[in-house]
């Protein structure tokens, strides 16, 4: 490859010039554990509602009768436990960690479930964070999981690379918001997935519109069609448009995301 950097640890290509084995290997699950499909929920930037989409996807699949788990890989900005109203520390055996079970039976693991205080900051370097993600996969006693959703950190940094290289990811869902930078943001996420040979399930546009409480008309505060254009540019399906919904935000703040009503992500669930 003419543009090869000879840094095989940061490359997903299986070329003839590949030197030795990657230092990143998929860690086996604990004996007796099972995880079926693994999907990463990613975004090219922060603040687009990636964790909201992850939480709703998990709830949607659980309602369809599947056993679901969420691995919170956003180590420095974990928000999954709060959305599900889970507080306190996860229990452990002598050599493994037990996932926390939500009210409807979704299995969770997040760094916030290991800290003494959930408001404590995580000030760790990249390799340490990457090791924690691997432990969340291989040292947690995941029980008969049909679908696992990995809430990825925003951007395309060390942790995202580590997840793609150490977890058996079956595909990614890209979350974007309908702003002027959407094309560039989507492009970053798409290119990273392609470099790591990870299939892209499709795009989800969050904060797409507001529904008028009086007349029911959809209002588009950021404009309409930007994410659709980005999806068409890269040959990807735009699977969902999610509204700005104060009631949904309130449910998350109250730790009651499992009580949400809506079918916005049904098309995404149909493709998994």
Structure description:
This protein is 28% helix and 17% strand. By secondary structure, the chain is of the alpha/beta class. Strand 6 (171-176), helix 5 and strand 7 (200-205) form a beta-alpha-beta unit. The longest helix is centred in the first third of the chain and has 14 residues, at 50-63. Residues 18-23 have low confidence and may be disordered.
Output the keywords.
272 residues; alpha/beta; Rossmann fold; eight-stranded mixed beta sheet; two-stranded antiparallel ribbon; 8 helices; 17% strand
Taking the sheet with the most strands, its summary is:
8 strands, mixed
Strand elements, count: 10
Q: How large is the count of helical segments?
A: 8
CATH fold field value: Rossmann fold
Mean pLDDT rating: 85
Structural class: alpha/beta
The CATH class designation is Alpha Beta
Order of helices and strands: EHEHEEHEHEHEEEHEHH
- Overall geometry comes to globular
> Which homologous superfamily in CATH is the superfamily?
P-loop containing nucleotide triphosphate hydrolases
Identify the strand order in the major beta sheet.
3-4-2-5-1-6-7-10
Q: Could you provide a short overview of the structure?
A:
By secondary structure, this protein is α/β, with parallel strands linked by helices.
Topology at a glance:
Blueprint: E1 35-42, H1 50-63, E2 68-72, H2 80-83, E3 100-101, E4 107-109, H3 126-138, E5 145-151, H4 158-166, E6 171-176, H5 182-195, E7 200-205, E8 210-211, E9 218-219, H6 226-233, E10 238-241, H7 246-253, H8 266-271
Parallel strand pairs: 1-5, 1-6, 2-4, 2-5, 6-7, 7-10
Antiparallel strand pairs: 3-4, 8-9
Helix pairs in contact: 3-4, 5-6
């Amino acid at each position: 490859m003419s543009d090869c950097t000879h840094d095989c640890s940061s490359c997903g290509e299986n070329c003839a010039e590949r030197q030795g084995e990657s230092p990143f290997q998929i860690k086996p699950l604990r004996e007796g554990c099972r995880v079926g499909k693994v999907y990463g929920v990613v975004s090219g930037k922060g603040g687009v509602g990636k964790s909201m989409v992850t939480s709703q996807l998990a709830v949607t699949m659980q309602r369809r009768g599947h056993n679901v788990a969420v691995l919170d890989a956003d180590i420095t900005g974990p928000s999954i436990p709060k959305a599900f109203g889970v507080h306190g520390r996860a229990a452990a055996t002598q050599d493994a960690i037990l996932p926390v079970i939500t009210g409807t039976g979704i299995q969770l693991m997040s760094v916030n479930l290991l800290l003494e205080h959930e408001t404590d900051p995580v000030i760790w370097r990249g390799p340490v964070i990457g090791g924690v993600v691997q432990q969340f996969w291989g040292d947690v006693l995941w029980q008969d999981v049909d679908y696992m959703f990995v809430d990825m950190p925003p951007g395309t940094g060390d942790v995202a690379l580590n997840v793609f290289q150490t977890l058996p990811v079956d595909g990614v869902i890209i979350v974007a918001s309908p702003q002027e930078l959407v094309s560039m943001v989507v492009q970053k996420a798409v290119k990273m997935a392609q470099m790591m040979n990870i299939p892209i399930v499709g795009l989800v546009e969050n904060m797409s519109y507001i529904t008028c409480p009086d007349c029911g008309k959809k209002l588009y505060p950021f404009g309409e069609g930007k994410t659709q254009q980005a999806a068409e540019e890269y040959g990807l399906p735009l699977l969902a448009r999610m509204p700005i919904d104060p009631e949904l935000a309130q449910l998350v703040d109250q730790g009651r995301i499992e009580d949400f009503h809506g079918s916005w992500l049904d098309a995404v669930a149909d493709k998994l």
